[in-house]
Amino acid sequence: MGSYLLAFPEFNIYSTALLILVTQGILLAVLLYYRAYNKQLLSDFLLGTLLLITCYHRTTYTIGFMGWYDTFRNTKINYYLIPLTFAVGPLIYLYLKAVTTSAFRFRKTDWLHFIPLIVFIGYRIFILVYDSGQPGFDTQQNGVLMQNWNMGAVGNFFSIIETLQQAIYLAFSLQLYYAYRKKLRHYFSNTYSLELRWMRNFLFIYILLFLYGNIQQFLDLQIQSLTWIQKWWKDFFAAVAILYMGIRGYFTPPHRLLGLDFNLSDLKTYPREEIIATDKQELTQFMESREAFLRPDLNLEELASELGISRVQLSRTINAGFGMNFNDFVNSYRIARFKEHLKQGDHRNHSLLGLAFESGFNSKATFNRVFQKLEGNSPSSYLNSLKSS
């Protein structure tokens, strides 16, 4: 027993790096669960669960590089460390759905996403029960079914299904994200802080890691066996990516979306042209007299309430009457006000960004993007053209 204690644990660059990531992930998951309980945020619960599974999946590599398998040759830990990879894709998708869908609720039908996971866990439990009842089980690391099934054809079958499932859920997640971005422009006048670009970045990074992992597996099985150190990098960077997602998710809670209704599915049915013309005139007069566009957080529901009409009617008027979405409509007034500031010479005493903020923008990135889209050039180029005219 004394020699065992000397051999395990061994702290080296590979085990220590994973151990640090796992510790951070567990602490962050606890914080997410705590906030999920206090504020009833399903998104935090899903993200915390995803982090815990990520930490759990690092266990094999962490204890392996700490010398566990060399020290305890007949260990049965592989039977108990059941991979939960079938849960990762659904959790990423459901987390994104909880963040981007107002008033999202986990329904009974959502459990269907986890049927492959339940089947796989049942399969692994069957292997454990069967192998543990066979003679000589205690004297070897892997029993009959673990060796012949899980490390053979059955294990390869589940691996293929797992790969297909992850690809499908990553595709669904990307589709959901871009649909959300599109909806924002129909509802909010300033969308930059709500666009969740970090989530897009995570999805792209995770897709690259997913492709890298499959290439690595192909090389390992078909070309040349890879060492555990060579395989370690994929596990390390996947953990870093999900930890990044957890940190960003914790510090950017979806508080502005809670309770909002993005359902504008009936916008394609437009009212008569004379009704649109009347609403268009009233809306133009309101925007010019009340200058609602100067409020950075103006959204569709607030403006509709102030006009005394439904948000669907307002959105129809903007779409059909002005040929714009809500975001472009409000920002066109902001750009017009910014241009007025320049023509009056206000740029001599204020920065361009300061004038943009006075015109209703709340983000430099949004201002530059909108100006380029609506005017066809940059704010500084437009100012130079004024000076030369």
UniProtKB/TrEMBL annotation:
Keywords: DNA-binding, Membrane, Transcription, Transcription regulation, Transmembrane, Transmembrane helix. It holds the Pfam family HTH_18. The chain crosses the membrane at residues 12-34, 41-59, 79-99, 111-130, 157-180, 201-219. Gene3D superfamilies: Homeodomain-like. The keyword Membrane applies. One of its GO terms (molecular function) is sequence-specific DNA binding. Residues 281-385 form the HTH araC/xylS-type domain. The keyword Isomerase does not apply. This is AraC-type DNA-binding protein. It comes from the Bacteria. It comes from Robiginitalea myxolifaciens.
